[in-house]
Structure formats: structure tokens, C-alpha cells
Amino acid sequence: MSLGFYLLRRLGLAVITLFGVVVAVFLLTRVLPGNPAYVKAGPYAKPEQIERITAEMGLDKPIPVQFWNYFTDLLHGDMGVSWSTSHPVREDLMQRLPATIELAVAAFVLASLVGLSLGILAAIKPGSAIDQAVHLLSVIGASVALFWLGLMLIYVFYYKLRWVPDPMGRLDVLMEPPAGPTGLLLVDTLVHGEFQQWKSAVGHLVLPTISLAIVLTPTIAKMARAAMLEVLQSDYIQTARAIGLSTARMAWRDALPNAMIPILTTMGIVLAYLMAGNVLVEMLFAWPGIGFYAWGALMSNDFDAIQGFVLLIGILYVFLNLVIDLLYGVIDPRIRLA
Q: What is the 3-state secondary structure (H, E, C) of the chain?
């Protein structure tokens, strides 16, 4: 099967999956407890006011009609209006998405570098002191509570040592974020030559990044170790050992590319989790990302905002799965024949 046909097939599956996500999001928000019209109207609203708001939100129509209206609005880029912010949900999410992406990518890069290195070292010398140390670190990292870990990091490195700025947002209080172009402060501050703001952005990013990386590194390390061990026991690696090739060369040059399929799958899951599951960290560090926005929407039963957040996360998951599928075909051409 050619790479082009493989790409088209994966794109078609992604479109079907995306439509399923839209249907699931629509149905999920319809079964949530509480009446969005009642919440929007307030606790002292009269029944006629609730009925009017229900009609304005389209909740009095049959479910198929509601879904059709919702789907056609999505095709025009309309996710509704958040009643708590009075802004279109799409604008709210796009404004906060760069903050989540910046934090997620930083934590993903750190967790991947450390996790891959530890996993490969443990696989090269199974049963050694290094392997035991990696196993112990993995157990500790996987067992620690993320919220508690973040609090401890704040207590030690901010309150006691004063090594990092106050854990509130992405910049110091008196600093204004640069005007674009990406919304990623580490990029925009460099583009505008604002190095003091760049330093502040890095300082605010350190603790939430470390918090997430400590929890997620064990997952990557364990998968890297298991995948590398399987490859290192294969016949061609044993033959390479017999003719005297160095262990480091075999591990990094010969074994790692063939172990990348399960490792890549795990890394994709980790990145998807970082995009959707770092609500606790965003709350703890007052990080203005989509997770913090979703928590506020859930607490206030902001119907359109919850729906928009879940849909955005579904789109991101589908996109990441598509990228991983395409990377599978590039790493191992045999997959394209399946």
C-alpha cells in the first residue's frame, strides 16, 4: 500500500471518529444533571423567565432538532456563548489554549527525555543497580499524588528557597504579555525581544512542568525499558553482540528504532493526557489554560463552555491519534500493508 493511500485511509477514519466525538459530546451534555436554563436564569428566576431562556437555548426542541442545529453551528465555527464570560466559547478556548499547549509541551519534552534515558539505561543492564533505581523511582513517581507534589514544590522552592517566582499565572503581576503572534509566551517574548518577560515566563513554567513530568516520567520509562528489553533479546542484536559491537551503539542506533512503536504509543497517550488532564496543576498554579476554564465552567454549569471544552479535547485526541498513526507508517513500512 502506498503512503498516499495509507494517509487517505487514516484521514477518512479520523473524520468518522471526529463525527462520533461530536455525537458523544452532544449526548453527554444532555444527560448532565441540572437545568442549564435554570442555572443561567439564577435561583430567583420566575418560571416564565426559565421557559424563555430554555427556548432561547433551544432546549425545548426535540433532541434530533437540537443535534442538527448544534452540528450546523459547528460547521460554521460556532460553539455557542459562555454565559459566565459572555464571550463566544470558541474565542475563550482559543485564548486559553496556548497556555495549555506551552505547559503540556514543556512537561512532555522533559518527561520524554528523562523517561527514555532511564528506560534505555535500565534495559541495557537488567537487574543491575541502575535498573533497581529506575524501578524504585518509577514506583515513587507513579504513586505520588499530583496535587500534593505541586504543593510540596511550591513550599520548598517558592516559600522556603525563593528560587522561583510566585506560582500565580504565567508572568509577574506587573508584566503585560506581548501581543501575539502565537500566544506562547516563551516564543512571543523572544520575538518581541522582551527578555525580562521571557525570564519571568520560564520561571513561572518551571514548577508546573516539573510537577507533571515527575508523575508522567515513570510511564514512559517503564514502556521504554520493556520495549528495549524485547528488542535487545532478538537474534540480530545477539549477533551484533557476538561480533563485538558496543552496547551503546546497539541500543541507540539499532535497537531503539525498532522499539519505537510501543514507546510512541505511550508518548502519544501521555501528550493527550497533558492536554486534557492537567486541570489540577492549572488550578494549583492559577495557570490560565483550558483546564482551568473547564473547571470554572463545570462549577457554574456553563452548558456551552463545557460542551466546547469536551469537543476541543476530542478533536485534539483525534488529531494526535492521526499523527501517531502516520508516524507508525513512517517508522515501520510494514504497517502500511495492514
A: CCHHHHHHHHHHHHHHHHHHHHHHHHHHHHCCCCCHHHHHHCCCCCHHHHHHHHHHCCCCCCHHHHHHHHHHHHHCCCCCECCCCCCEHHHHHHHHHHHHHHHHHHHHHHHHHHHHHHHHHHHHCCCCHHHHHHHHHHHHHHHCCHHHHHHHHHHHHHHHCCCCCCCCCCCCCCCCCCCCCCCCHHHHHHHCCCHHHHHHHHHHHHHHHHHHHHHHHHHHHHHHHHHHHHHHCCHHHHHHHHCCCCHHHHHHHHHHHHCHHHHHHHHHHHHHHHHHCCHHHHHHCCCCCHHHHHHHHHHCCCHHHHHHHHHHHHHHHHHHHHHHHHHHHHHCHHHHHC
Q: How far is CA 265 from CA 133, 139, 241, 260, in A?
A: 25, 21, 28, 8
Q: Where in the chain are the domains?
A: 89-291
The answer to whether the beta carbons of residues 222 and 119 sit under 8 Å apart is yes
Residue 333 has pLDDT above 70, yes or no: no
Residue range 89-291 in CATH 1.20.1640.10:
no
Of 310, 247, 324, which is closest to residue 275 (Cα–Cα)?
Answer: 310
Q: Centre a 10 Å sphere on the Cβ of residue 267 and count the other Cβ atoms it contains.
A: 24
pTM, full prediction: 0.84
The pLDDT tens digits for 194-221 are 999 999 999 999 999 999 999 889 889 9
For residue range 97-147, list pLDDT tens digits in order.
999 999 999 999 999 999 998 998 888 888 888 888 888 888 888 788 888
